[in-house]
Specification:
By secondary structure, the protein is of the alpha/beta class. The protein is built from 12 helices and 21 strands. It has helices spanning 16-27, 42-47, 49-67, 82-106, 179-190, 210-223, 274-277, 313-327, 357-364, 377-382, 411-423, 428-432, and strands at 7-12, 32-35, 110-112, 116-120, 123-126, 131-139, 143-145, 171-175, 194-198, 226-228, 233-238, 244-248, 251-256, 258-261, 265-267, 300-302, 342-344, 350-354, 367-374, 388-395, 400-407. The longest helix has 25 residues, at 82-106. The structure holds NADPH dihydro-nicotinamide-adenine-dinucleotide phosphate. Residues 148, 175-181, 183, 199-201, 203, 206, 232, 262-265, 311-312, 342-345 line the site of NADPH dihydro-nicotinamide-adenine-dinucleotide phosphate. FAD binds at residue 53. Residues 340-447 form the Pyridine nucleotide-disulphide oxidoreductase dimerisation domain. InterPro entries: FAD/NAD-bd_sf (IPR036188), FAD/NAD-binding_dom (IPR023753), FAD/NAD-linked_Rdtase_dimer_sf (IPR016156), GSHR/TRXR-like (IPR046952), Pyr_nuc-diS_OxRdtase (IPR001100), Pyr_nucl-diS_OxRdtase_dimer (IPR004099), Pyr_OxRdtase_I_AS (IPR012999).
């Protein structure tokens, strides 16, 4: 008997959420196709988390090589090649891109390497003109960098281009004070560039605990990163010597050779035929969905950054998995958004789970706050005057941990394990009852006063 549609599922966007949803739907027996206009893997793999983390590793060697001398190592002046690091990172991205394609292929998912648009209730038209039909449509198109509309904004770059630079800049202006700004400030600073963060407010990393943000600001300034607050860029002009002059509110203009916009990411929902299809969008053009990722149209779903719920890769993956299990696996599943750990891979990194102190006080009234402010053993020996800070926020007499925040070496690695305990509802007493693992930085978690 002829099938009603060409596919059971058509996914638009082969990033973290779209690939997971498509592969799992196929393993549940669905006939699946996926369209991707760029490279399979999406922001995280191609121009986000993965290449960024490799640059963070590369940058950390600058400090490690310096510190090594205190541990008895002598070496001739180490040399750094940006081109070598860049090409190795891009080669790893190529490898992962192939691995993602192989995964789709091995699950029998049909890949269309072209743009797709919804053109009828169950109809999708591809850039080549090919028309396909599908029972269900999943939008997983992610988000794109937001660039302020100022004169000369085209002279700046975003995180999309930053992995492909031909030369390391000597003076970088980073607009924004969020994740990407602080991560790339750390990277470029370790590579000896003069970095200036230019932010429209006086708040870095909005949403993170104030104590961590203050500590990152203090360490970053000590490392030589400059900050200009209440300083929204108003224009960029190209100078005769090839440099750029950036004018900004409340501050003098600054001459630099690279401008990086890290001013947030907006849902990538334009030109997909969504409005015509009747899919409701929110104020930021995000796709509105219910807790099962269903849009206002019964057979159209959306997962990941295009829904602007929590802009994090592991969340998109969970949403994709839950969609596939609910729609094709016969098991109605929704994502639990409580206690999602997150990290900023700055130098040093910071990591958090649960409520900040301010949020906890607003929501719960009286809370108990425990702090550990310490200098890691390795920093002491290396003569590096850089302190780590852990903060635990506990609720009520029982002392249930409702927030845990850390800044210091390896804090994202430590947080992933600690977040399990926080998510499980453990208390300060449970942590204290665990014998310290000595000597580590993470033992501070069970020794907090
Ligand atoms: P963020 O949302 O983290 O930060 C945006 C920054 O830009 C804020 O400081 C904001 O200021 C400022 N800003 C926003 N709009 C303007 C404007 N028009 N002019 C000037 N400044 C502006 O965005 P990012 O671009 O750094 O990252 C995007 C998202 O990607 C993050 O939210 C995160 O979800 C994800 N991401 C996650 C990473 C991780 O998990 N480690 C790493 C990188 C990205 P204000 O605070 O005043 O609004």
């Amino acid at each position: 008997m002829a099938q009603e549609y060409d596919f059971d599922l058509f996914t638009i966007g082969a990033g973290s959420g779209g690939v997971r949803a498509s592969r799992v739907s196929a393993s549940h027996g669905a006939r699946v196709a996926i369209a991707e206009e760029h490279r399979v893997g999406g922001t995280c793999v191609i121009r986000g988390c993965v290449p960024k983390k490799m640059l963070v590793y590369g940058a950390q060697f600058a400090e490690d090589l310096e510190d090594a001398q205190a541990f008895g190592w002598t070496m001739d002046k180490p040399e750094f090649s940006w081109i070598k690091l860049r090409d190795n990172v891009l080669a790893e991205v190529d490898r992962l891109n192939e691995a993602y394609k192989t995964t789709l292929d091995s699950h029998g998912v049909t890949l269309f390497n072209e743009r797709a648009e919804i053109t009828g209730p169950h109809e999708i038209t591809l850039a080549s003109g090919k028309i396909v039909t599908a029972g269900k449509i999943l939008i997983a198109t992610g988000a794109t960098p937001h660039v302020p509309d100022i004169p000369g904004c085209e002279l700046g770059i975003t995180s999309n281009e930053v992995f492909h630079l031909d030369n390391l800049p000597k003076r970088v202006l980073i607009a924004g004070g969020g994740y990407i700004a602080n991560e790339f400030a750390g990277i470029f600073n370790e590579f000896d560039a003069k970095v200036t963060i230019v932010n429209r407010s006086d708040q870095l990393l909005r949403g993170y605990d104030q104590t961590l943000r203050d500590r990152l600001l203090q360490i970053s300034m000590t490392k030589g990163i400059d900050f200009r607050f209440h300083a929204e860029p108003t224009g960029i002009e190209k100078l005769d010597d090839g440099n750029m002059r950036v004018s900004m509110k409340n501050h003098d203009p600054l001459d630099v050779d690279l401008v990086l916009f890290a001013t947030g990411r907006v849902p990538h929902t334009r030109g997909l035929g969504l409005q015509k299809a009747g899919v409701e969008l929110g104020d930021k053009c995000e796709i509105k969905v219910d807790r099962f990722s269903k849009t206002s149209v019964d057979h159209i779903y959306a997962v990941g950054d295009c829904t602007d719920r929590v802009q994090l890769t592991p969340v998109a993956i969970r949403e994709g998995q839950a969609f596939a299990d609910s729609v094709f696996g016969g098991k109605q599943t929704s994502v639990n958004y409580d206690y999602i750990p997150s990290a900023v891979f700055s130098h040093p990194p910071l990591a958090s789970v649960g409520m900040t102190e301010g949020e906890a006080k607003n929501k719960l009234g009286t809370v108990k706050v425990y702090l550990s402010d310490f200098r890691p053993m390795k920093n002491v020996m290396a003569g590096r005057n850089e302190r780590s800070l852990y903060k635990m926020i506990c609720d009520g007499d029982e002392g249930r941990i409702v927030g845990l925040h850390m800044i210091g070496p390896e804090s994202p690695e430590i947080m992933q394990a600690a977040a399990i305990a926080v998510k499980a509802g453990l208390t300060k007493n449970d942590f204290d009852a665990t014998v310290a693992l000595h000597p580590t930085m993470s033992e501070e978690l069970v020794l907090m006063k």
